[in-house]
Amino acid sequence: MFLNPRALALLLALSISVITTSFLSLIPEVNGVSLIITALLSFSSGYLLIYVILEFLFFKEIRKLYSALNKIRGKDYTSIEIEKEKKSLNPFKKINQEMLAFAARKQGEIEELKKAEAFRQHFIADVSHELKTPIFAAQGFVHTLLDGAVKDKNVRMKFLKKAAKSLDGLDILVHDLLTISQMETGAIKMHSEDFDIIDLTHEVFDQFDNKADKKEIILKLAEPYDAPLLVHADSQRIYQVMLNLISNAINYTKESGLVEVAFIPDENEVTIIVKDNGRGIPAKDITRIFERFYRVEKSRSRGKGGTGLGLAIVKHILELHGTKVKVKSKVKQGSAFSFKLQRVKNV
Ligand SMILES: Nc1ncnc2c1ncn2[C@@H]1O[C@H](COP(=O)(O)OP(=O)(O)OP(=O)(O)O)[C@@H](O)[C@H]1O
Ligand SMILES: [Mg+2]
Known about the structure:
This protein has helices spanning 5-25, 32-73, 91-146, 153-185, 197-214, 235-251, 283-286, 298-303, 310-320; strands at 193-196, 218-221, 230-233, 258-265, 269-276, 326-330, 334-343. The chain is α+β, with helices and mostly antiparallel strands and 347 residues long. Strands 1, 2, 3, 4, 5, 6 and 7 form a seven-stranded mixed sheet that branches. A hairpin with a 3-residue loop joins strand 6 and strand 7 (334-343). Helix 3 (91-146) runs antiparallel to helix 4 (153-185) and helix 5 (197-214) packs parallel to helix 6 (235-251). Residues 244, 248-249, 252, 276, 278-281, 289, 294-297, 301, 306-312, 335 line the site of adenosine-5'-triphosphate.
């Protein structure tokens, strides 16, 4: 009953009116009509004023507090919105705003934790799945040998080679995973130095000469680039980046394709672009290819022995250089991966 603003206003207005009229009645000159008018006026104005104050400054805010509390109690964080009003002088409004802001912050933290948990579960499932494939393969070959195939000299060599290949794949996978986790924990630091990015690209091209020849893919620089182009970065890690990008460009490009590397220097930076005219990446996959183990064509890449970690490593290395990798791609037309490095002016 007392938490009702109308009843409270009525009581208070009545008391004010009674007190005022009683005091006035003590003055002999004041007649009965004046006393009634005073009583009515003080009651009605008091009632209105007190009701408005109680309702808008007090009860409305308390009701909001209750509804917010109920939502928080019911873990219904989604429907809580932070009031965008400017700072209010009303202390109840302030408490309300702070409580809502606090609940919204907690809501954000809970969502982050849920995401991290989902990521962890996915990651463990992915790692187990990726490890299972080469382990099962190697296990199968070894058991077949133990079950008698070892006596046949030809089969023995063939199976041992296959088991070794599976174990080599496992080794690469574990090594790549370790590299990513060490980069994430900060155990791997970049050791920057000045080096010629054109020279480094030629070295990477040399590595892929055979592979490109087999697929009749042309590997070339977009221009002759006669003068060295110095950049400041960790040369070994950038070598790894170029190796991954160029290897992808060759792997995912049809026979007789073209893989081209371009350098666009400006005042302080050099943009490096690795472009191919291969199969391209569908728009729905483009944001996901930098995730660990993500492959556009799951079965095909795995068949080719890819771990799906190449671009995740590229992304991490470039992030440690304070830069990031961008990609533009069109299905059946090709892809272009680009990133910037700090330029060193030739002296
Ligand atoms: N140049 C490209 N053209 C078309 N698709 C690409 C290209 N580069 C990457 N992709 C797609 O992105 C996926 C992820 O690439 P990423 O390099 O991370 O893994 P991978 O090549 O499958 O294996 P890994 O590099 O570990 O051997 C690839 O499986 C492929 O589907
Ligand atoms: Mg790759």
